[in-house]
Amino acid sequence: QVRPVESGGGSVQPGGSLRLSCSASTYSRDRDCVGWFRQAPGKEREGVALLYSGDMLWYSNSVRGRFTLSRDNEKNTLYLQMSDLKTEDTATYYCAKTVLLSRDSCSLESGDVNYWGQGTQVTVSS
Questions:
Q1: Which whole-number Å values give the CA distances from 69 to 110, 111, 113, 125, in the listed order?
Q2: What is the mean pLDDT of the chain?
Q3: Burial grade of 83 (CB within 10 A; 0-12, 13-18, 19 or more)
Q4: Side-chain half-sphere of 10: how many Cα atoms within 13 Å?
Q5: For a FRET experiment, which of 42, 55, 98, 99 has its CA 20 to 30 Å from that of 35?
Q6: 89 in helix, strand or coil?
Q7: How many whole angstroms separate alpha carbon 39 and alpha carbon 125?
Q8: How far apart are CA 69 and CA 50, in angstroms?
Q9: Which residues contact 106 (CB under 8 A, 6 or more apart)?
Q10: H or E segment at 113?
Q11: Collapsing DSSP states into helix, strand and coil, what is residue 33?
């Protein structure tokens, strides 16, 4: 039996909220970005929210202002608080690490991303 890595997904109406959790695997705070990606059926996987270089945060334009990424260092757990959910947020959400680039940003290149689990499904519908 595979231990769940991501959890907290579910079905919610537009405008609702969900909180995703991720049991993070080992990563380097000096060279890795950590956070969340998502993939809708038939679409490419995309970056959603990333944390890097301590407290620096990046969000995709589509979720900025609605989603919040946080981390519990003691528990080595990542969270994604999602508010004001929209139908276009429907996707499987994955936590992962990716490469911290020399210009102090996170790589979204698929080859640089290491996914830790099977994802958790978020469905937003009326």
A1: 20, 23, 17, 23
A2: 93
A3: middle
A4: 11
A5: 42
A6: helix
A7: 16
A8: 7
A9: 33, 35, 47, 50, 52, 58, 98, 99, 100
A10: none
A11: strand
Above 50 in pLDDT, residue 54?
Answer: yes
Q: What is the pLDDT of residues 62-120, one digit of tens each?
A: 999 999 999 998 888 999 999 999 999 999 999 999 999 876 789 999 999 999 999 99
Contacts with 66 (C-beta within 8 Å, 6 or more apart), sequence order: 82, 83, 84, 85
Q: Take residue 101 and report the two structure tokens written for it.
A: 């680039």
At residue 3, the pLDDT reads 66
pLDDT bracket for residue 123 (50, 70, 90): very high
40 closest CA partner among 85, 91, 87, 86? 91
Name the pLDDT band for 1 (thresholds 50, 70, 90). very low
CB 21 within 8 A of CB 8: yes
Which amino acid does the sequence have at 112? Answer: D
**SS3 category, 78:** strand
What is the token pair recorded at 21? 């959790």
